[in-house]
Amino acid sequence: MKNSVVFLICLFLWVSNPDQLVAQQALIDSLQNIISKNNQDTLHLKALVNLGIALERTNLQQSKANFLAALAMKNNPDFNRLKATAAIRLAGNYSATGSLDSANYYFEKAESIIKSYPSDHKLAYNLYSGLGIHFNRIGKADLALDNYKKASVLDPSLIGLDNVAGLYINMANVYQSLDDQKLRVESAYKALEIFEKTQNKTGLSFVYNLLGSINYQLKNYSESEKYFLSSLEYRKLLNDRRGEAVVLSNIGNIYTDRGSYDQAIEFFIQASEINESLGLKDQKGIALINLGKTYEKMGDYQKALGQFKEAQKILNEAGISKMDALLLTDIGKVQRMLSMDQESYANLLKSSQLAESEKQYFDAITAFKNLKEYYQEKGRYQEALMAQTKEYTYRDSVGMEALRAQLKEFESKYALDLKENEINLLKAEKELDKLELSRRKANQNLIMAIFFFLILLAGILVNKYRIVGKTKRLLEVERLRNAIARDLHDDLGSTLSSIHILSQMALQRETNGSNPVFSKINTQTATMMDKLSDIVWSIHPDNDNLDQLLSKMQEFAAEMLEPKEITYEFEVSEGAKEIKLDLEKRRNLFLIFKEALNNAAKYADSQHLDIRLTVQGGKLNLLIKDDGKGFDQTLIKKGNGLFNMQQRAQMMGGNMVIESFPEMGTSIQLSAPIA
User: Fold this and answer.
1) Cβ-count burial of 348 within 10 angstroms (0-12 exposed, 13-18 middle, 19+ buried)?
2) What is each CA distance from 189 to 6, 165, 173, 181, in whole angstroms?
3) pTM for this one?
4) N or C: which end of the chain has fewer CB within 10 A?
5) Do 91 and 130 touch, CB atoms closer than 8 A?
6) Sign of CA dihedral 658, 663, 664, 667
């Protein structure tokens, strides 16, 4: 929900092998054959438990039935350990479907059995791990962490390496709930190191999903999608329907953030259908929240509200409270958009209080941000200022932690890359030793071939280190741009916003509301905030491609033209979105576009605008044409606006042509090289 690092190598070699599914079905058939004999012995009990485990990810109802059948077998001391395992797994299934009373009952039953076997570390691990997952699911992160810590002190040689790695994944999920990003990332990489060593496909599917979530939270969408897709392939290979639904929902979040809403909705619906078929209330609730967020971004607030309220109902029925603050914020936000002022305020206020009390700092940032916007909209500027102070306080408190987590992530990537290189070099050295023994009697041609091979290898290594050095320099530049954009936004932006709010308060307190000094401060700070927003946007490296610029241009066109009831058509040629412009060209293009639309909206008296952006012959062409009253270029003296537009076109290395005649509209044609 909060808003996903090792490069993946040869994943599809595993996916292309269908033997895994065949083996899984063969195992199920074998277990069912043993159960059908109904011998009521240890082998029969073991088959029931193992079949229940095998079906947990595909058929939850049948899985429960097998565990219940195992627990119903006659009392026999030899059966106790297997019955304890069945009780733990059954409790976990009831927890996942929201039946908390049943979950607690079977956890207690398992605990009562395990007390008789204090030296059985594997049973103890299963209990602590199951309780940890259960408590984290229902929002009791502290209790979850206590159980995981109990499991972590057990003997690794007895519980197995894969279970140790699974424990790290579960602890990473708890650290996410506790907003401890540093420990979350460390736990993820510890799990990855073990699973890559043991080549456990189930474990890799979980850890890749976790790394995708970490990258998503850092807005590294490309890396995040790679990890999610790799996890999804493993889930399908293993026929893990529960895990498949989780990953589908995560991929849907990426498409939502990218603005591909139709694709996002498809992923969320697929995830919701799987969760519905398996009876997983917590996961169904999460899928509905994600679906609601997508409808909200599409502007369909009524549908969004319906999805949020349905999710709230399902999660409440399941006894899951850890998402209450986030849900209340989402509900309050769309209610504000629907002018449901009283309900909106109540939910936003409650969400901010709940996020603070539960120490959910990321949720607190979102809650106070929306509460501030509500106060500003209602003219309650003193309260808006207080909400903004809270927002920035929590933003500062988690910002450095998120940055440290990101740096740790890059360090881990680098360390793992070095480790892989060392392994490859060792393998190469062994191969060279073997070849050397066989080459002693070789002729001169073979020696020359070896010499050529070594030169080629040296060239590859030199080229590789050159690329690594270049990549490091690019990362440093990108970090610097991120830091500048963040400092401008957080420090200068916060100060300007405070001045703007205080000037509005001062104007409001004036008897006639017409103090020219405060009015001028208010107007100029609003203008400065707008310009600062443009500067921060242009500096941020996430906006380097033309796709992001087009989104901002379309957003500005809507804000400028729609209130004046001016219709417009925004046409972009195929392939234009993938183009990258440097920072200066991107900024000049947007400012030319902004000035042209300002002139058309304010002075042209136009009813319709045509906006076309095309790429042809290595040049970027922008046409803005209105049907307004136009002007005689020989009679009108060029002001600063038109002069600045010409200057910016020249700075881009291009040219701009303005054509206008009285009562025939105006057209502006910009042509500039891409490179």
Assistant:
1) buried
2) 9, 9, 13, 13
3) 0.48
4) C
5) yes
6) positive
